[in-house]
Amino acid sequence: MNKSRPIAFLIFLMAAVFTSNVAPSVARAQQQDGLGIAAVVNDDVISILDLHMRTTMIIESSNMSNTPETRARIMPQILRGLIDEKLMLQEAHSIGLTVEQKDIDAGFQRIARSNNMTVEQLSGQMDQMDVPLSALNARIEAEIAWQMFVGRSLARTIKISEEEINDEIKRIQTSAGRPEYLLADIYLPVDKPDQDAEVHQLATRLIDQMHAGAPFNALATNFSRAPSAALGGDMGWVQASHLDAELLNVISRLQPGELSNPIRTLGGYYIMLLREVRTSPGLGTGESILKLSQFHLLPSTPGGDLSATEAQLTTLTQGVTSCAQLEALGAQSGSPMSGPLGEVPLSAMPQAMRSVLESLPAGQLSRPVATGGGLAVMLICERQDQGANSEAVRSEITQRLTNERLDVAAQRHLRDLRRQAYVDIRL
Fold this sequence. Notes:
This protein has helices at about 25, 50-60, 70-95, 100-115, 120-130, 135-155, 160-175, 195-210, 215-225, 245-250, 305-315, 325-330, 350-355, 390-420, and strands at about 35-40, 45, 180-190, 235-240, 265, 270-280, 290-295, 340-345, 370, 375-385, 425. It is α+β, with helices and mostly antiparallel strands. It folds into three domains: about 1-175 and about 385-425, Porin chaperone SurA, peptide-binding domain (Triger factor/SurA peptide-binding fold), CATH 1.10.4030.10; about 175-280, Chitinase A, domain 3, CATH 3.10.50; about 290-385, Chitinase A, domain 3 (Roll). The strands form three sheets. It has a four-stranded antiparallel sheet with strand order 4-3-6-5, sandwiched between helices. Strands 8-7-10-9 form a four-stranded antiparallel sheet, with helices on both faces. The longest helix is centred in the last third of the chain and has 30 residues, at about 390-420. It is elongated and about 95 Å long.
């Protein structure tokens, strides 16, 4: 079979970690009757044939070597994924949701298009794998059913306030001028302490597969438990302030195109791929309006040495973090240039001032600037971007925050379903 063009199945498989009652016995499934039972999930059955077909599909689509050793290593993960799919379907059915065949067909067509294939070509590729279309259709049905359930039952619980939108706008603007990373991730959770070694081994195997030529996006789609798995692990541009300290510590030392080693976080292991690095643009090129205060200090003698003035200025303003503090200090300076400067468009300022203030966070003193025969430090009381409060920007932020929280809610709900379910693994 031609393996030069692995199929990038872009339907999200909710894969899970090895468990002690699955891993030791899964390898024996390859010698058992294909019509036997691999697991019972509440009232539904996963057959050994289901497990074999899904394993073959994932190995081929991920461009992994189809050997008995590879199958034995990844089958526990795949079985847990099949169990999750049963739980998803059961939960959707519990509130009367069903997936119509036309929706499954549309999902199949999307996968074909994403691989630059016709439906007939994709069907032929499945035939070459010796995997029936029903194996892929079952995966598509589970994903669509779960999306329907999340949209119907969980989305209505997510509310984003105006204050949260404003806080996010400020955070984005504060990050302007700082590094931003184009990332992809694979996340493998560790649900119990005794699973740590198994999950770490899986992460290491996936990295080895990628170094041997397996596509990152295919492995992310088939093994990652992050929301980005549906997009082949693609996270888009991520600001440093949105990354956990453990991840940022590693990512900041990677070169574009470089893959990380497994990174242990509180919940599990990450594999990170850094694609590009850029300077964060904030919210774009809209005009910035700055509300400013200034503290100005003249040298002790006209035309005197400004180095002594700079030292005095630094001492006097030490610990100042608010405009009120700076203005109170300015009232004692004796300079008419001290005090509030009002709201000033950044573009209207001299270039020397603009270069100091354009990336300065609100509440942080600027470096001393020569002006008016002395030196001054400025502090931004408030920064407003005329484009930041546009309806389109606020709508985009609202949608992103909603999606982030909905992803978290969906993962928590599925975790609760696992804990409550009756699962009998027969291998």
